[in-house]
Amino acid sequence: MFSHSVKSITVVLLLLWTIFPVSAQAELTSVDKQQITALIERWNAMLSKKENVQPETIYADQVEWYGVKMSASQVSAKVQDFLQKNVQFQQEIVDQVKIQPYNRFNPDDRPDVVMVSFVKLAGLTGEKKVYYPAEMLVKKEANGWRVVSETDNITQANQKNERAYLAAKGKFDGKNISYAWMTEQNPRTGGACIDDEDGAYECQCFLWNSNPNIQPVKIRQCLVGYVMTIKDLDGSGRDRIALGPDWWSSGWRVIYLYDIQQGQWIKTMPSFSMNISIQEGAMADGLIKPDPQHPGMIQITDADIDEASGEPTIKVETHKLWELK
Known about the structure:
By secondary structure, the chain is α+β, with helices and mostly antiparallel strands. Helices cover about 20% and strands about 40% of the residues.
């Protein structure tokens, strides 16, 4: 009787495991994080040819590799073929590896995987190396943590998939095409921004450019949101990058506008507020437009608090874009 009961309980537990998969992020321990970081380091060693690392020890049996579903053996063949044809290829990780849930606001969205992100510097020669915002999904399997998805935000933007909003292309200096994106960091831990962690409400972002000569700039109280290229604001030929950071709570958001001047990111106007309750669905390109009455000037539609009612209200303002002299 006791043996039969144990078997019945075991079957029920197995069924529950199948129906309700345990969240990989919820179970993460310090050892898990160390193992995930070690996995990324082995991946980097494989591609930078620092060690004789076999792809089979990195990837799961099935992998989504830059948007294409493949077997581990197919990925292995592509990696080895690439390295043989590009003997001068080099890469290095230049940003701290961030480990976090796939969807911070919806733990039921792909709960069995963990997202890993970092910035890498890669290319065939020193002059041709560029920054890439790498993104991987890893899963704990019987033989340890393995990569189940490998891509980067630039590839996602070019593929126009559901994560295309994370990177944008433009001539931000008015001449050269480059890519821009944001990363985030908990300033107390140096790692990913995870809710309920110490320092989570002090999280900050960094605006990056694919050109290694352009240094990242810091945006305070920020979680990674969307980036968007806005063209033809003032007839200068210079594209601008608009940032729409996310945040843990509240309906208020801050919009930023940057371009590249004299080899550096420059904030080209004061940041302004929007309210997602009264400006539902509004994006930066609808809030920042050329002023038809004043060539060279722009109009912004921002949100403020009405002093009389205490409620959010909309107003339109005219600004001149800042330039370094």
